[in-house]
Amino acid sequence: MGHFFSLIHTHGPDNNTLTTELVDGSNCDTDGDGICDTPADPKLTCENVNNFCQYIGTETDANGQAFTPDTGNIMSYAYKACRTHFSEQQLARMYAFYITQKNYLACPSFNANFSVDVSQTCNDNLLVKFNSTCNNITKWEWDINSDGVIDYTTQNPTHNFSSGIYDVTLTVSNKSNSISKTYTNLIKVGVTTEPLFDENFDEFDVANNNGWTNNDVSNTGFNWLINHGETSSEETGPTHDNTNNSILGNYIYTEASNGNLGDVAEFISPCIDVIYENSEIEFAYHMFGKNIGELHVDIKTSNGYINDVIAPLIGQQQTNQTDAFLTKNINLSSYLGETINIRFRAIRGNGWKGDIAIDDIFLKTIITPISDNSVKLYPNPVQNNILFVKTNNDKQENLVYEISNMMGQRFASGVVTNEPINVSNLSSGTYLLTVLGKNSKVAKRFIK
Q1: Contacts of 234 (CB under 8 A, 6+ apart)
Q2: What is the rounded distance in angstroms from the CA atom of residue 182 to the CA atom of residue 395?
Q3: Is the C-alpha dihedral spanning 305, 310, 311, 313 positive or negative?
Q4: What sign results for the dihedral spanned by CA atoms 361, 164, 182, 260?
C-alpha cells in the first residue's frame, strides 16, 4: 500500500547497498526514504531484528554512528509481525499523493470533486468555468487561489485568471458533514519556459510541477506520475532514470495498473517560444512490458492541436526492463515565431504490464544550421573502422560528438579532437554523427 501512495522503503530505493542516510538526520530529506521522521535504516532483516522486534545489528553510518531504526515501520524489511505503523510525515506524503494523483478513489456518495472546461493557456488571461459534480450538497465554498479567502459560494462559478499558477480548493457541506479538496497547480496562465530548457524532473515531487500539466482524460486513474527506481508493477517500466542511469533520479511515467484498454493520459508542457528556426525537442522514452500501449506526441499552436508530429510509438520498444532509454527528436522549424505546447499522449494497452516512461525533455536551440559546412567527416563510407572529424572551430570552444542511428538510439559519444574515432563496434548501416557546441549543432550522416 505504501508504494501505491508514493512511499519507498525506509532503507531507501536500493536493496543491495547500505543507506547513505546519516543517523543525525542531516541529509534525511535527500537520502534514505527522503522523510525526516523515519530514522536512518541500515536495511532491517530477520538477521538484525529479533523475535521481540528489537534491532540487534551493529552497522554504523558514514560518521561512525550506530543506527537506531524503527522496526515497527510498515515500509521497513523487519519481521512482518513487527510492522504496525506509518510515521506522521509518511501519512502526510500519502495524503498529498492521494489528493493530487489518486483522487479518483474518492467515495462517490459524498465528495468535493469538480472539473474545469480549460486549465492552461499561453495567453495572459484565462476564463475558466468550474463544474461541481457533487451530489446532495447544500453549501459550496470556492477558494480560487488557495489564499484562505472564499471567492465564490455558488455551485458552478466562472473566474478570469491573470498570469500565474493557481491551486483551487473546493469545500462542500451537506446537513451533517463538510469535506475539502485542493487541486494543486491546476490553473496555469502564461507560464513560459526558459529559451533553453532541459527538464529532467529531478526537482519534481508531483507530475504537475514547473508549469507541466498531467490529465487523467478517461478519469480512471490512468495518469502520468513522478517516480524513481522501478515502478510499482513487476515486469514493466524502467529500473532507473535516463539522466544519470540512477535509481535515485526521477522520471515521469504512466501507471498501467490503473484504467482500462484505450484510456488516455496527457502530459502537457509549459508554453515554449520557438525563436530559432533550427530548433527541436529531444526526449527520452522507455516502453517495456508485454501490455505496452501507445505514445503519441502532439503540438498545440494558437490554432489548436496538431496530432502525431512524429510517428507514434506503439508497443514494446525495449527488450529488457534494464535497457537504456531511447531518444526521439521533434523538428520545430515550421513553428518559428509561435508559442507552442508539447503534449505527450499515452494510450493504455490491454493489461497492467504497460508502464510508459519519459525523461530529459530538452529544447535544443540550434543557431548553426544542420547543413553547415563547418564539419566534415572522412572517409565516408568508413574504411578500416576509422572516422575523422574535421571542424572549423574558430572560437576554440570545446566540442563534443554523439553517434546515433536514424531512430535516435545513441552508440557513442566523446570530445572532438584531431584523433580519429574508432567505430569498430558499429554494425553496417547509416548513422548520424552530431557535433555540439555551446550554441551550435551540426549533424552529418555517414555510412559504415
Answers
A1: 353
A2: 53
A3: negative
A4: negative
Segments making up each domain of the chain, as ranges: 1-101, 104-189, 198-366, 375-447
Contacts of 261 (CB under 8 A, 6+ apart): 348, 349, 350
Express each pLDDT in 142-188 by its tens digit: 999 878 899 999 999 999 999 999 999 999 998 888 888 888 889 99
Three-state DSSP class for 5?
A: helix
Domain 375-447 is found in CATH 2.60.40.10: yes
- Residue 31 and residue 28: Cα distance in Å, rounded? 6
Query: 371 pLDDT exceeds 50?
Result: no
**For the domain with range 198-366, which CATH number is right: 2.40.37.10, 2.60.120.200, 2.60.40.2550, 3.40.50.620?**
2.60.120.200
Q: What is the pLDDT of residue 432?
A: 82
β-sheet bridge partners, residue 139: 173
In this prediction, residue 196 has a pLDDT band, given cuts at 50, 70 and 90, of low
- Give which of 282, 285, 318, 312 is closest to 297, Cα–Cα: 312
Report DSSP state, residue 152: B
Q: For position 134, what pLDDT does the model report? A: 77
Average pLDDT on 411-421 reads 91
Adjacency order of strands within the sheet including 164-173: 120-121, 178-189, 164-173, 139-143
**Helix (H) or strand (E) run with residue 326 in it:** strand 326-331
First-to-last C-alpha distance (Å) of the chain: 51
Distance of CA 214 to the CA centre of its chain: 10
Q: Are strands 272-273 and 158-162 parallel, antiparallel or unpaired?
A: unpaired
Residues found in the chain: 448
- For residues 46 and 61, give the distance between their C-alpha atoms in angstroms, rounded to a whole number: 20
Query: Which residue did the predictor score with more confidence, 360 or 370?
Result: 360
Question: Could you tell me which CATH number the domain at 104-189 has?
Answer: 2.60.40.10
What distance in Å separates the CA atoms of residue 78 and residue 57, rounded to the nearest whole number?
Answer: 12
Nearest to 179 by CA among 130, 106, 101: 106
Instruction: Tell me, yes or no, if the two domains 104-189 and 375-447 fold the same way.
Output: yes
Q: At residue 390, what is the residue type?
A: K
| Confidence band for 222, pLDDT divided at 50, 70 and 90 | very high
**Cell 566540442 belongs to residue:** 399
For residues 232 and 354, is the Cβ–Cβ distance under 8 A?
A: no
Residue among 289, 285, 395, 266 at smallest CA distance from 341: 266
How far apart CA 315 and CA 194 sit, in angstroms, is: 33
Q: How far is CA 292 from the centre of its chain?
A: 18
The domain defined by 1-101 carries CATH number 3.50.50.60: no
